[in-house]
Design goal:
The complex is a heterodimer of chains A (225) and B (247).
Chain A (H helix, E strand, L loop, with lengths): L17 H12 L3 E5 L3 E7 L15 E5 L2 E7 L1 H22 L5 H14 L11 E8 L6 E6 L5 E3 L2 E4 L3 H11 L6 H14 L7 E7 L3 E4 L7
Antiparallel strand pairs in A: 1-2, 1-8, 2-9, 3-4, 4-5, 5-6, 6-7, 9-10
Helix pairs in contact in A: 2-3, 4-5
Chain B lengths: L15 E3 L16 E3 L17 E7 L2 E3 L2 E4 L5 E5 L2 E7 L1 H22 L5 H16 L6 E9 L3 E7 L5 E4 L8 H11 L6 H18 L6 E8 L2 E9 L10
Antiparallel strand pairs in B: 1-2, 3-11, 4-5, 6-7, 7-8, 8-9, 9-10, 11-12
Classes of the chains: A alpha+beta (225), B alpha+beta (247).
């Protein structure tokens, strides 16, 4: 029993949690992801590494919906993402069942971040190696939101953010060029941010937009925007 | 599209012929004669395929009762499970709501996980499975008629009773009223009914229940599901909630 209690995530003498920081390294190696919040629209974009010729690219969906009004994109270990996404989807339905209300974006973000934190304080497990960008609309007020979580379990709301590879360059671009936009302008901002760091552009990005009325829509030809 | 001179008369079922329009003339060698024969249309006794009669209709009474007290007479017992499925449930009120909402959320979860909705058959089997699992521990006293429309297979209706019996049926009924409804449906139902004919049959059943059942519920709701989705069709109210008189 003694061996099982050994936590993998322990404090270092100078107060760091190395496993969490190594997990953040894994995120930094994952593909780029960007999220932008407009006044009536939220946009998620991810870099798509050039697909192997024989691979069916439709089976690799990087932007997923958690509920009718919430979507998620992530950077990092995709296998870990599957687990988190599954738990989040169950929580969305469970919330609807117990309180007869859809989740707010903040609630489900807090839930996912809580899960990520749990795995930094348990015996024998490692943290999830991914950061998520969660977008959606409040089910009653219709206000759009964008949140980010990371392996340490912290989360916060953003107007625009990026994670994964070269996220610093993307964030710099967003800081320089962000302004309150709506509709197509928001989409263009997200795509331009991605194109800063993605190699050849066009075929290598996957973009999805969410509006209050139509839910999540995957864009067909992002390079054509 | 260019018009050509190809003769293409409509071909009635059970007809035969030679050559055009169903078979080639003098192919592959000159002088070859091909003859053809058309079978019967299975769907409709009138001998023609009528589109637009792909639907399923369910009706339920709308009274919520506790012993001798009627709590409310506009309780909607037909839940819209997803865009193309209806679940009409009767039985213990608490179980009815708990169970159908549980099924609804699980059906939604499946759709999010897999990107496509469950078929009606799959939803019916899942429902039956849940009833069966709970049966010998903590049974749900809920009887269900599950109606749905699938793009590939069209409309379907499933009879699921509280001890987890599952039957795919063309017509079904639960409750004391079923004695009368089943008799009416046996007499008047035929395959290929139009929406108007089906609603007329539902109304016949309702009339029988109202006139012959000693504790007949006053109000009913009718819902329909077809290729355009699941939706409320009509209410049949003989007792409206009276407006409260002002003091």
């Amino acid at each position: 029993m003694a061996r099982y209690d050994r936590a993998i995530t322990v404090f270092s003498p100078d107060g760091h949690l190395f496993q969490v920081e190594y997990a953040l390294e894994a995120v930094r190696k994952g593909n780029a992801a960007v999220g932008v919040r407009g006044t009536d629209i939220v946009v998620l974009g991810v870099e798509k590494k050039s697909a192997a010729k024989l691979q069916d690219s439709r089976s690799v969906r990087k932007i997923v919906s958690l509920d009718d009004h919430v979507a998620l994109a992530c950077a990092g270990l995709k296998a870990d993402a599957r687990i988190l996404i599954n738990r989040a989807r169950i929580e969305c339905q469970s919330h609807r069942l117990t309180v007869e209300d859809p989740v707010t974006v903040e609630y489900i973000t807090r839930y996912i971040a809580g899960l990520q934190q749990k795995y930094t304080q348990s015996g024998g497990v490692r943290p999830f190696g991914l950061s998520t960008l969660i977008v959606g609309f409040d089910p009653y007020t219709g206000v759009p939101s964008l949140y980010q979580t990371d392996p340490s379990g912290t989360f916060s709301a953003w107007k625009a953010n990026a994670t994964g590879r070269n996220s610093n360059s993307m964030r710099e671009f967003l800081e320089k060029n962000y302004k309150e936009t709506y509709g197509q302008e928001t989409v263009k901002l997200a795509i331009r941010a991605l194109l800063e760091v993605v190699e050849s552009g066009g075929k290598n990005i996957e973009v999805a937009v969410m509006t209050k009325e139509d839910g999540l829509r995957q864009l067909e030809c992002p390079g054509c925007q | 599209m260019k018009e050509n001179d190809f003769p293409a008369p409509p071909i009635p079922p059970c007809s035969t012929g030679e050559g055009l329009p169903c078979a080639p003339i003098s192919w592959a060698n000159s002088g070859d004669a091909w003859s053809w024969r058309v079978g019967t249309r299975i769907n409709n006794a009138a001998g023609f395929y009528s589109d637009g009669n792909d639907f399923a209709v369910v009706a339920a009474d709308t009274s919520a009762v506790h012993s001798i007290l009627v709590h409310k007479s506009n309780e909607d017992k037909i839940m819209i499970l997803d865009s193309h499925k209806l679940i009409a449930a009767s039985g213990e009120s608490g179980d009815r709501v708990q169970f159908t909402e549980y099924i609804q959320k699980n059906v939604a979860l499946y759709q999010f996980r897999n990107g496509i909705p469950l078929t009606t058959a799959a939803a019916a089997n899942f429902t039956r499975g849940e009833l069966a699992t709970a049966l010998r521990k903590n049974p749900y006293f809920v009887n269900i008629l599950l109606a749905g429309y699938d793009k590939e297979t069209g409309p379907s209706l499933y009879y699921i009773d509280y001890i987890a019996t599952l039957h795919k049926v063309d017509k079904g009924a639960f409750g004391y009223g079923s004695y009368f409804s089943l008799a009416m449906m046996d007499r008047h139902y035929h395959s290929g009914m139009t929406v108007e004919e089906a609603i007329d049959l539902v109304d016949k059943c309702i009339m029988e229940i109202r006139s012959r059942l000693v504790v007949a519920p006053p109000n009913f709701v009718i819902k329909i599901v077809d290729k355009d989705g699941a939706r409320e069709y009509a209410w049949r109210e003989s007792v409206k909630d009276a407006a409260v008189a002002s003091a």
